[in-house]
Amino acid sequence: MAFCSSLSFTSISSKSNPQKHSSSSLVPSHRPFTSSHLSFSKSSSFHSRQTLFRTHCRRVPPPNDASFLVLGCAKKAEPLRIMISGAPASGKGTQCELITDKYGLVHIAAGDLLRAEIAAGSENGKQAKEYMDKGKLVPDEIVVTMVKERLNGPDSQEKGWLLDGYPRSSSQAIALKEFGFQPDLFILLEVPEEILVERVVGRRLDPVTGKIYHLKYSPPETEEIAARLTQRFDDTEEKVKLRLHTHHQNVEAVLSLYKDITVKVNGSASKQDVFAQIDDALTQLQEQKQGKLGTVAA
After folding, report:
1. Which Gene3D superfamilies match (predicted)?
2. Number of domains present in the structure of the chain
3. Whole-angstrom distance, CA of residue 10 vs CA of residue 167
4. Residue 63 covered by a domain
5. CATH of the domain at 86
6. For strand 38-47 and strand 161-164, is the pairing parallel, antiparallel, or unpaired?
7. Half-sphere exposure of 124 (CA within 13 A, CB side)
């Protein structure tokens, strides 16, 4: 919506030749125009967080007054900033794809950043590789720096971001907050442990195509494919339960910092139903942001 309150212009007689006047010849007068005296028509083009628009303002009474062109500037609502967490096999990867497809957010995963930095041979990547080659965990300060730089990227600032599976500890969350990164929403996918174990243990990889199958939920198309499927070494019931235990500990620590903005989603439903729950929460968040923007503009 355009707002044109507290503006004033010199009144130009309708008897004057309109071709002799342009918007540049208009000068302020002492007679105020308010939004109640104006009617609008506009065309907008969006640039970054601001929208330049050309508005045609016409004073309704009296009918012989002139029309004017006014240039204004209206802000767009802030982009979404979302964190999502879920245990192994909770369907987090699928939901991240659906979220980014609909909302255009920049998908950021710490693991992807690590691999990209190592492949690029950056200073952060070299340091991370030294630790990984020794079988050690990459220190928080290295990973947090990578995440911070990606969150500060122009596309992340413009489109908003979806931080996938990070932070995983309270220290990482605190570090992000100190850098000025606070999510609007923390989405937690909740799936009962017995379902998670079943999902993980039944997973199989096709080494030829890289496609992931599940013996129960997504079986291979042919006997030939079934014969060559492999199982990850840690996709056993014993090891997945250890991973789940670690995940739950980490999530509890992080939730304490984001409890006021956490949305818990039933991740045991179909992927469409899970996304419907997330979509509702994100739609409400967008509406709140637009509402705040409208209040400020008014």
Report:
1. P-loop containing nucleotide triphosphate hydrolases
2. 1
3. 58
4. no
5. 3.40.50.300
6. unpaired
7. 19
